[in-house]
Known about the structure:
The chain is an all-alpha fold. The chain has helices at about 15-25, 40-45, 50-60, 70-75, 75-95.
Amino acid sequence: MTVEAPLKKPADAGAIRDWMVAYITSVIEVQQDPFPVNDRFDLYGLDSIEITIMCGMMEEQFKIEVNPNEVFDHPSVSELSVYLAHRVGESSAAT
């Protein structure tokens, strides 16, 4: 009988949301708790350079390509985390 290693669970929206909140609060002065996850990114004071850096770090963290334009298409932590969790799930299912 062969025992298979447990499958690594892909990141869910909550994990991605928590990561983004931790990242954003580490680079700008805003409270982490309660963090306004439904506010638009531009209300946090993030500029395009910081968004690009955040996207690159999310690529490393979640092993998925994150284009900065996706931040504008899904302009809040809540929206982007759900969108990326869906993409992470799709890429995990494909492998």
